[in-house]
């Protein structure tokens, strides 16, 4: 376990920690008991944070040289690396993921993202562009673009991977010279609050990074509506994403929306079945299934359907559901009681629609918000195939041909990612081109890396994060022409 008594629980605004008028409490998902209470930012706290971030952007931070921005990001990465065990423990305590996964996957991804964008900070260039001349005449002109920082960015973060997902916003935003206000999720603010202390220790000018724990409907909504914010980068549910898009229209904020998913994993008859079953199980159960890219629609060719169903049921029964700090646990609790009840409700709805519950399907009788890893057999028209469940539940559905697989894969409102399991290289590329999603994995589930653009199509979102796309999306291009 970990002592939370020394943690910051207030707002970081303009380099100072200060309490808000209201507080809210967050549970320990492994016990169901209250874990801690935190300051809840009000709309006037949001105004103050925007003022502080604007002052930093127009002052010391705006005047910081690009290479120095890179040095500061590297320094922050060093501090996160130094304290990574503590940060991993805080996340596991707060949101329930087994500690080994926080330490081995989530913190390393966060550190790698900070370092990747630290390297970009002094390589953000416009380009010189040839034209026909001034007003099309023979008078030559010199034309070029500058890529300029946008100003104040708001980053609204979900609870399922707080630091990792924050890194995809924070690191490129700072590399490009923007100031930022972070709104962590109600259910998992602790690692981000501790990060606030590390940001100060790294030496970023006050106000460059502000942290506002609080309630989405209050602090999140105030950020989305605020005219002083240039861009809002949101990861969360599709419903809230839609509200943010509407609220952002007040001042035509740039928006990056990373929303929900219902990813298909297509297992062809020629797949390496052991690898496919292991990969599909990871796609269903990693992080207790609370993953936007969770591969929860398993489409299995009829020739391997029974084997896939058996294999996944065995994988579900092989999971060890337990305390996130027990090294034997492969799955912890879901984040809160509402999430557990929503998942169980959807499984019951699936059962009522005729899905077979082949493994799991219930919440074990113990304290905390645990749900058994669950495998359903059913069809693509059932609610459990249409809705994002955001829990450890996968549905296995048979298909008969490549066309059939593609049409089932595409028959969903979401389009974040998909996985193709086959040993036929040509088929892999053909299917990758036809499935409508932001990212396709072949023979491996969701290999996230800072170098690779990430984001969805359809109801899975707007825009891309990570990679060079991240640099483009945190700068505005400006065209300059000079008549010579
Ligand atoms: P959520 O939408 O409920 O909350 C996300 C964040 O938005 C929280 O910080 C919350 O406080 C804030 N918020 C809530 N209401 C708001 C409002 N009206 N205005 C502004 N902000 C508001 O999502 P969640 O339950 O925390 O996260 C789970 C969802 O996130 C799932 O749907 C999942 O698929 C999605 N997700 C997507 C990705 C991706 O990369 N596409 C990654 C992780 C999670």
Q: Overview of this structure, please?
A:
With 484 residues, this protein is of the alpha/beta class. The chain has two domains: 11-259 and 460-483, Aldehyde Dehydrogenase, Chain A, domain 1, CATH 3.40.605; 264-442, Aldehyde Dehydrogenase, Chain A, domain 2, CATH 3.40.309. The protein is built from 15 helices and 22 strands. Strands 14-15-16-13-12-18-19 form a seven-stranded mixed sheet, sandwiched between helices. Helix 2 crosses helix 6, helix 3 (84-95) crosses helix 4 (99-120) and helix 9 (273-285) crosses helix 10. The radius of gyration is 23 Å and the shape is globular. The N and C termini lie far apart (68 Å). Nicotinamide-adenine-dinucleotide is lined by residues 156-160, 165, 183, 185-186, 216-217, 220-221, 224, 235-237, 240, 243-244, 258-261, 292, 388, 390, 416, 456, 461.
Entry summary:
Residues 17-480 form the Aldehyde dehydrogenase domain. This protein is an alpha/beta fold.
List keywords for this structure.
six-stranded mixed beta sheet; Aldehyde Dehydrogenase, Chain A, domain 1; Ald_DH/histidinol_DH; seven-stranded mixed beta sheet; Ald_DH_CS_GLU; oxidoreductase; binds nicotinamide-adenine-dinucleotide; 484 residues; 2 domains; Aldehyde Dehydrogenase, Chain A, domain 2; alpha/beta
């Amino acid at each position: 376990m970990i002592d939370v008594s020394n943690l910051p629980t207030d707002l970081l605004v303009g380099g100072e920690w200060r309490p808000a008028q209201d507080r809210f409490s967050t549970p320990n998902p492994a016990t169901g008991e209250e874990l801690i209470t935190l300051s809840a930012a009000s709309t006037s706290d949001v105004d103050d944070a925007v003022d502080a971030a604007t002052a930093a952007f127009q002052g010391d931070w705006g005047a910081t040289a690009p290479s120095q921005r890179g040095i500061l990001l590297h320094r922050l990465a060093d501090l996160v690396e130094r304290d990574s065990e503590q940060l991993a423990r805080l996340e596991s305590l707060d949101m329930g993921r087994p500690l080994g996964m926080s330490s081995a996957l989530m913190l390393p991804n966060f550190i790698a993202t900070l370092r990747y964008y630290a390297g970009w900070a002094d390589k953000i260039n416009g380009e010189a562009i040839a034209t026909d001349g001034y007003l099309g005449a023979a008078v030559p002109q010199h034309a070029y673009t500058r890529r300029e920082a946008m100003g104040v960015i708001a980053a609204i973060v979900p609870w399922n991977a707080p630091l990792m997902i924050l890194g995809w916003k924070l690191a490129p935003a700072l590399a490009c010279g923007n100031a930022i206000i972070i709104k962590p999720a109600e259910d998992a603010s602790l690692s981000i609050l501790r990060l606030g202390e590390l940001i100060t220790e790294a030496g970023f000018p006050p106000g460059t990074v502000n942290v506002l724990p609080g309630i989405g409907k209050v602090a999140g909504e105030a950020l989305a509506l605020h005219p002083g914010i240039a861009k809002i980068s949101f990861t969360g549910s599709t419903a809230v994403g839609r509200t943010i898009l509407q609220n952002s229209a007040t001042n035509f904020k740039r928006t990056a929306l990373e929303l929900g998913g219902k990813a298909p994993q297509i297992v062809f008859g020629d797949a390496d079945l052991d690898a496919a079953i292991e990969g599909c199980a990871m796609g269903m159960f990693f992080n207790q299934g609370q993953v936007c890219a969770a591969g929860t629609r398993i489409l299995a060719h009829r020739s391997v359907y029974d084997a896939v169903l058996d294999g996944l049921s065995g994988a579900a029964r092989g999971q060890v559901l337990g305390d996130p700090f027990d090294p034997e646990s492969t799955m912890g609790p879901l984040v809160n009681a509402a999430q557990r009840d929503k998942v169980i409700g959807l499984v019951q709805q699936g059962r009522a629609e005729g899905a077979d519950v082949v493994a799991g399907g219930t919440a074990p009788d113990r304290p905390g918000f645990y749900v058994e890893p669950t495998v359903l057999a059913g069809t693509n028209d059932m609610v459990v195939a249409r809705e994002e469940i955001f829990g450890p539940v996968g549905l296995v559905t048979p298909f008969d041909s490549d066309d059939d697989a593609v049409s089932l894969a595409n028959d969903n409102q979401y389009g974040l990612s998909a996985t193709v399991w086959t040993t036929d290289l040509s088929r892999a590329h053909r299917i990758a081109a036809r499935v409508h999603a932001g990212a396709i994995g072949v023979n491996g589930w969701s290999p996230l890396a800072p170098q690779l653009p990430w984001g969805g199509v359809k109801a899975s979102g707007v825009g891309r994060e990570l990679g060079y796309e991240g640099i483009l999306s945190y700068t505005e291009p400006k065209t300059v022409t000079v008549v010579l």
